């Protein structure tokens, strides 16, 4: 494999990739309204002579290049979040901008740049004769990730019966290779009370006061250490081999956290005692934690047990229709995943990168200092479709993608042309490096 030819081919496609990305982000593409993005991506795949291009029942686009036996996936979610307060933007988020090194617009880093590099990476494989009978490349542009990470891949795997040998997530990685992320889940606590007139609160049973007690326990989970004298041991305990057999990977990914994110109540009036109170908890999970363990942790808090049958702890469900009208319900559980540092996929991606670009992260001038200060192989702080690909389904997943994590969901979002080129080259080299 001639790595210099791969680099040259990727560089030659810079203008085409930039044009493609700018055209995608001109259309709003929030979750459940991604049709314009999908149609434009399918058009580009067909123009670049993909062997097969399909749009499934959920609205994901799947493009295949090659006819070999081993299926290798490159995934990019192509939905975006909204723009928020437009006054925080210094340019039109959909018109975007382009200069010599950058492209601006909603979704350029999170995460339409990934589909651009993956589509052109596959084309480079065909241009240079890298496709052979060993592998087929699958490039997926997936929907609804911002709403419900991984739902798209549950559909692809379970309904489409598509199961790659491994998948590269093209979420932004700041020039690095990412081998995992903390998981997350959305927990709900419901507390019952009894209303009465606010002038005599002793006649009722105030659900808000009960919830206040419970929330102090939840706060302790997040803030306490794991000392023996703590009735509620903090989540930091999962970094200790005494409490967690996966403590090494937990230390790599970082400790779990929990926070109250929403609160609701019912009351007959502002002159009455509240007769119910509910909260949503955002729970981030490290290695060794499961949805069962996280729910049991809340159920065993002292004040949850104190209020007994008046408290219900549950997990949310997501059931919003995609832009095609399909509803595919799933629990709001997004498992932790991490691919071992010595896994064949990890080693192949590192080899492909190092043969192309050396041992350190690279990037545009403004990004280099931050990037080179970090290890080449690291992890995400946020969640990705890997929660389904590897977390739920055990398919090895690894991350390498254009753009920056800090640009995700931010106003004035931008990415760098150099990242598009770098990632397209690495994607083109990876299958041959893996199948050699």
Describe this structure in words.
The chain folds into 2 domains: 280 residues, Aminopeptidase; 136 residues, 2-Layer Sandwich (Alpha-Beta Plaits). The N and C termini lie close together (10 Å). The mean pLDDT is 97. The strands form 6 sheets. Strands 1-2-6-3-7-19 form a 6-stranded mixed sheet, with helices on both faces. Strands 10, 11, 12, 13 and 16 form a 5-stranded antiparallel sheet that branches. Strands 4-5-20 form a 3-stranded antiparallel sheet. With 436 residues, the chain is α+β, with helices and mostly antiparallel strands. The radius of gyration is 24 Å and the shape is globular. Its cofactor is Zn(2+). It comes from Lacrimispora saccharolytica (strain ATCC 35040 / DSM 2544 / NRCC 2533 / WM1).
